[in-house]
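Exercise 7. Predict the structure of Cysteine synthase family protein from Sphingobacterium micropteri.
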Amino acid sequence: MISKFIGNTPLRRCDALSTRYHTNIFIKEEFHNPGMSAKDRPALFMIKDAIAKNKIKPGGIFVEASSGNTGLGITLIAKKLGYRAKIFISQSCSQEKINLLIKAGADIEICENSNGLHDFNSTQFKAQSFAAIHPNAYFTNQYYNNQNIRAHYQTTAPEIWEQTVGNITHFIAGVGTGGTISGVGRFLKEQRSDIKVWGIEPKGSILSHFLKHRTLPTSMIPFDAIEGIGRNFVPGSFDATYVDHIFQVNCQKTKHIAKEYYSQTGIMAGFSSAAVMASLDCYIDKMSFIPTDTVVLFFPDHGDRYISKLYNGSVYPANISSNITSF
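Solution. The predicted structure, encoded as tokens:
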């Protein structure tokens, strides 16, 4: 079964960050999944749900709008089950992810943006339109598919709870579709309501405003280009009920932290992973950690997908492990 290859990823204590911030910081390393990202989890749940409900017939096309990782997970799983994949990505997608999608066998189409279904040039609108006019094509629609939340509620969160022996005090993750923080947040809050669930988004993204006011801001501005997180619309897979706060970080700080962390540890953090670390540096006083806290940082993918964006192409291939794993 494909499901046995996905999940059960390590939770590693990070000595460098724990020492720097005077608390116990652990990293949930989702790049150990076959597609090297957390998105393998919702990809599997969405595909299994569609097949079980006869929304697609054998040999059909799974369609998704993705910044790359969900698209890769869907492509790998669909291919293994005898289906095809059509992935709509925005022009901001890293070349490394594009190369991986092509290598995995995806049919990709590059779109102007990922601004949501209301924008005719967006990945979401193009994906929905493609699925609507092509026979036996199904739009998994991660931004509005409840399987996105369910995947993290049923797999990611219980793993973290077990790995921390129930001692987790803080969960911090980037917010893109909202599936991870909504699913993990709900499970953790059901175990112990005092656990802090914090999201991270780029400067200019609107989800922190929505969390605070439950309305959209009166004006929209372009948000910092931190790949995989940040929105100018509220995805249906974002459940604000289980999120305590969303911090904003800028792209420049995120890039600096990624390079600094790599130089100190030899570990390449992905873009949103670096944003999570940047939030610690920017808001450490507000976070008010104590030495006995157990803080879990969510690292959804690996930095080898952002060599050109985060590391200026300065990391040599010998230091990279970019091969996706076969099921």
